[in-house]
Amino acid sequence: MVSVPLAFTAWSQTLASEQSDVAIRSRWSSLPGGSTAMNDKSYMGTGSPSSDRFAFFSEGSYDEGAFKLAYDNKQTHTLGEFLTIAEPVSNTASEYTGHVFVVTGEKDIIFCGGNCLQKPVKASGNNLLDDTKTFYPKAASFSTHVPAGAGHALFAHYGTDQTISQILDWAKKTVV
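The line above is the sequence of Alpha/beta hydrolase; the predicted structure tokens follow.
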């Protein structure tokens, strides 16, 4: 994976217990295990609606109702989960011999800095997702799909039905 320098001026993370949206904080604490999430300082959550739009959605590529549904139902994540998406924590799956299909939106800020169509740095291919190949050197097959216009919240954008069809078609062809 390539490291992309970013300045997140509109995106924020906060401890789950310090979530500024009272309705979200109340919902999180009522979930199974919610008391743990609210008391354990390793549980995080995104901040405001504007920070969620910036990090997870691509302007002009989603319906406002989809955003509201996603925001009203968002979950917490652990600090460890957040930190393991970057190098050097991610290790090569050197013994994995199955098939790999990597899918994320063209405008994914978190994984691609907002441009997943940029050329790969470590592997041959057509987009930044192809760099993932280096993590699966013995994979039976490797392919990628970059849905046009979508952000990190892949299934909350227009074209979700086509993206799901691509994934199911891949599964039908590769899974025995």
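Note on the example: The first strand starts at residue 13 and ends at 15. Helices lie at 22-30, 34-39, 49-56, 64-72, 79-83, 109-112, 160-174.
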